[in-house]
């Protein structure tokens, strides 16, 4: 019959102390057939005195029928409080429970267990106190076993030790309201004892479970619990709690947490585990909480130079720690691309919503959207704050508030939400007011006080410096982008040898503008040069360096140099620029670049490529897979003293050649090989329009916010048919000049270019005469009918004539002067076996 007070004191909480239980067994006739020592001690009656006697004889009233109404049914049992007569004669009030016993085929018997009623009430009070302390108290309590695994934890501890960086995984968390497995009890832990409800600390499932499914404690808790386990004494610590992201991106500041660890031992002194309690002290010390919030804000605000992100970070710090709603409004000139000549008059300046954040997901407090003008009334706190540059604290808003009648929409919002206090702070940095920050409270019952005003003013002042830095960086970024785009070719020239398309995509604002460029340069002999390069670095220096290199490439291309020789001279230029920068010590001293230079010949139907530290071009053939030709990888420009090599690749008509910078195939989320595979995929069908191919390349290869700028150029090749080219070998005999002029006249007649015969014969006559008189080796004459009429004379000499002014007494020296007057342009290019002098003539519009 229960546990006596003495037994409870001797064996506290021992569920196996059956020798102290007051138990009796009553047969179907109401006679006592069993009597325990505990019952004898509780009523003072030995077993011989009560066995085979009616149980009603022990009642104080003597009437068993009067006892039944006092018992209540609980399942198959009955329980209640009855009065029994002690052997000494006094009355003992006992809490009893009666349950039936199965007796096989015979009549049933009854088990009666009892304990002192006052002791029962004390036990119930202790149990309620334990449940309240462990389940409803804000004090966190948890139990660890000797392997530092959670055996039990209340809800308060789960909220404190929740690790938002590692979300819970796997089965449902036991302490959060459900069992992981119905076969494992309410705690969701197999083999748990009935008193250990809630095994497995809620919120810790993601930190790493053992094979049995229990979560391990964090490293900090484990280290401190092991110290307690080894020493056997209580251990108290005060630990710092880092800030963590809260709901909707808001920042929950860190603070401090007091933890106490003590060992749990059984009756024999054996350590069963470690119990530890924790209490969060952050909210108990307002000064410490404000200091923690300032510290967290210094790490959270200004993580980038993006203006929108910066104002959003400010809002995340203020909500919900300080306000229930915050709105950041900036002046229009803050987002202007250039520095304003003068800041506008504050009362008339236009404010636009830059960011807002609310404790409500649906934002019922929002009046305008981001990017929209706010249109505050003239007498509103925002306009007054903007005009004076001083913060304003509005403790009450009502019908008597002056600006309420001027803004009914906001007034209805404030009334419906129950807003009771306003705080408006200017966003001011370096003597310039850039906007205002508005804070409101309705869920928080406290009005903004002076401490809140000082805290918000400090937070906004720090954010204002970051906003001004972002504004200045955005202006510099725009200047660099403007310089970059102005130095790129505004429009690529049309050419009969290739059809081209291109893209330039600057990097995101945080990375800055780079020095990527592309170009298409017409060359002599109907050829065309395709160029793509990349200057190392970002910003104005990279953009200016790109402009220098592009101009140098165009100048060197006019000399008709071979690709490898052109890159060698460009390398010398970059070395010289780097030495000048180092001597001046102005800005970055290192100047470097990569470049790929390709020359396509539509007559020979081949492309000659050289590269300096740059990715190899891709060639999409019509009937073959996309090819990355094996072009010798030269060193990047600026190293100096290293050679460059070029390679020839045959190309059929209709193929697509893609030149690109490394930003197209390299990204932080993938390997270069993956980028190459995606590039092959985008070029797989070269018969598509080039603009469509460019769009697919952008969508497939580039992220939304590229970390590096990208430039690429794609060209579809065309060939010049043999009937548009005429070639003659001319013997080194002055008499053959007349024969050559006749052959040229006949070819022009067949092409329908008889009007150009006179000027062409003059050019042929002068160039052939110079070659016969001053050159050596085989002499060749070639006419090319393209967009222009091209006349070329080649010989085996390495010296080239130059234009000069002949005196009146000179017998010669006027040939090239006449050629320059007749031709649209002329020049000399060197080959492996000599040189070629060429001249181009403009054709009539219809013939061209």
Detailed description of the structure:
Strand 1 and strand 2 (32-35) form a beta hairpin. The chain starts with a helix and ends in a 6-residue tail after the last strand. Helix 8 runs antiparallel to helix 11 and helix 16 packs antiparallel against helix 17. The chain has 5 domains: 5-125, Beta-Lactamase (2-Layer Sandwich); 138-171 and 200-285, Beta-Lactamase, CATH 3.30.450; 301-478, Beta-Lactamase (2-Layer Sandwich), CATH 3.30.450.40; 490-717, 4-Layer Sandwich (Phosphatase 2c, domain 1); 722-842, Histidine kinase-like ATPase, C-terminal domain (Heat Shock Protein 90, 2-Layer Sandwich), CATH 3.30.565. It contains 18 helices and 33 strands. The protein is elongated. The protein is an alpha+beta fold. The strands form 7 sheets. The chain has a 6-stranded antiparallel beta sheet. Strands 20, 21, 22, 23, 25 and 26 form a 6-stranded mixed beta sheet that branches. The chain has a 5-stranded antiparallel beta sheet with strand order 8-7-13-12-9. It is 29% helix and 26% strand. Mean pLDDT is 80; it is low at 1-18 and 163-213.
DSSP summary, beta strand count: 33
Low-confidence blocks of residues: 1-18, 163-213
CATH class annotation of the largest domain: Alpha Beta
Distance between the termini: 118 Å
Estimate nothing, just give the exact number of structural domains.
5
The portion of residues assigned to helices is: 25-40%
Specify the CATH architecture of the largest domain. Answer: 4-Layer Sandwich
User: Based on helices, strands and strand pairing, what is the structural class?
Assistant: alpha+beta
Tell me about the biggest sheet?
6 strands, antiparallel
Strand content: 25-35%
Shape: elongated
Widest β-sheet, arrangement of strands? 2-1-6-5-4-3
* CATH homologous superfamily heading of the largest domain: PPM-type phosphatase domain
> What value does the Rg take, in angstroms?
46 Å
